[in-house]
Amino acid sequence: MMLAIERAAWSEEAAGFLAPAMRHEPGVTVATLAGMVECGSGELFAVLAAGQMVGAYVLRVDRMENGKEGVIVAAGGRLPGYRLLRSILPVIEANQMHGCNTIRIHTARPGIAREMRRAGYVVREIVLAKGLEYGRQ
Q1: N or C: which end of the chain has fewer CB within 10 A?
Q2: Which top CATH class is 3-135?
């Protein structure tokens, strides 16, 4: 099956694909992603199969001391019988991260981490978080 990737404007359809990626990150919500895309600090891409959206992802570029680092901020999609990550990741690396020295992704999903390691990514850090009831006022 041929997939197409297109830059897209924010939509509820894209939000539906991205919401599961945000469920482990209470400080960053789908509304945060929408704001990033709408103000231009992030770019939304739609993944299409036969003209229908089957996934979406948001990219940004961080300027670091030693150059640019591309960030896959959030991604999600579903196409039964097809591994979208394996198809889309090479496109992101080759065509969408021009001028970047590195690419970074954060995930709470072990399966995604395994797929990324298979694609040559390494664990740079481990981040743990805990919500505190008394800190909310």
Answers
A1: C
A2: alpha beta
Give the strand order in the sheet containing 3-8: 3-8, 43-49, 52-64, 67-77, 100-105
CA atoms within 13 A on the CB side of 3: 21
Beta-strand pair 52-64/100-105: unpaired
Place of tokens 């006022």: 137
Which letter does DSSP use for residue 125 in this model? -
> Using 50, 70 and 90 to split pLDDT, how confident is the model at 101?
very high
Cβ atoms of 107 and 113 within 8 Å: the answer is yes
Q: How far apart are CA 101 and CA 88, in angstroms?
A: 19
pLDDT of 137 > 80? The answer is no
- C-alpha R_g of the chain: 15
* Residue boundaries of the structural domains of the chain: 3-135
- DSSP code of residue 94: I
